[in-house]
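Re-run with default settings, no changes from the original entry. Doing this only to confirm the output is reproducible before filing.
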Amino acid sequence: MRERLTLGTIAAVTIVAGALHFAGAGSVVTFIVAGVALGGLAWAIGSGTEIVGGYFGAAVTSVLQTTLGNLPELFVVLFALSAGETVVAQFSIIGSLFANALLVLGLVIVAGSTVGEGRVMRFGARLPNDTATLLLLAVFIIVLLGLSDSAGDRASRHAVAISIIGAICLLGVYGAWLLSYLRMAGLPEAHDAPADAVAHSLKFGIGLLVLSGAGAALVSDWFVAALDPAVRAIGISKAFTGLVVVAIAGNAVENVVGVTLAVKGRSDFAVSLVKNSVSQIAVFLFPVLVLLSLFFDPSLTFVLDPIWIGALTITALAVWQITGDGEATLFEGLALISLYVILATVAWYE
């Protein structure tokens, strides 16, 4: 009953967002309502993937949730690129990285350590270390291109070509890792599936995915259309919008599902959900969007400003340091959240 009420509310908010968009209502109101609808649709996508994945095992569930849970970010970035909003597109991607690796993972650790034995959250160390490797690989390309762009050397004139090659390399590595991860279904961290994953039929789960995915595509268009005038009216920067507002709305799946699983003591499944999302954004979603952006002008590249390059590097190191041993405590979760708050504050003043 509660789930039906929630889905009904999401549908109602989505309809209101569409009505505001087509009625030419105020950009700020449309922007806010569309943002709320995006978050709700992200949750619905997460519920649908959990239902579908429940029929195939926890490893598939976590991969499905992270893949389809990133649909709102994918649509927002594509519509932003088509509207010429390259800054918003780029910051939406790295904002999702920061939100998952710092804010969501921090919240999951805080929740998990609170209920864990000895106030310690314990989970398999293999996936966190794999994620750190994938994240560092993406950061390597970003750092190289950023330094080249800052120095203005000859390679900086070929940022698009280098980004294309880098994207192909990242996708190849991600594909190889994904195959090995799915083969690890027999490990403990892949068996911690939610008990209520099959409470609904497979048809219901697929239908929910189709409807919520279509809704996410429509709302993303309305959201981006209202973005520029709303940002000017509110007085916030596009960097903050992409890094914080879009990132939090688009990552509702990881926020809600990850923390809920952690509170229930499903540490491995909670961490795998967030970690899979981090690695997928870094070495799948970002590269795919770089390749898709070739159909737009200007194209998306891995070139970032030095401040965000530094933030990504520290984020990768912090995630590896805190989760690499398979244990995390309350203060470590708070440390990750604090890093995100500091980062959001910097973005606010950008």
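The longest helix spans residues 202-234. The radius of gyration is 19 Å.
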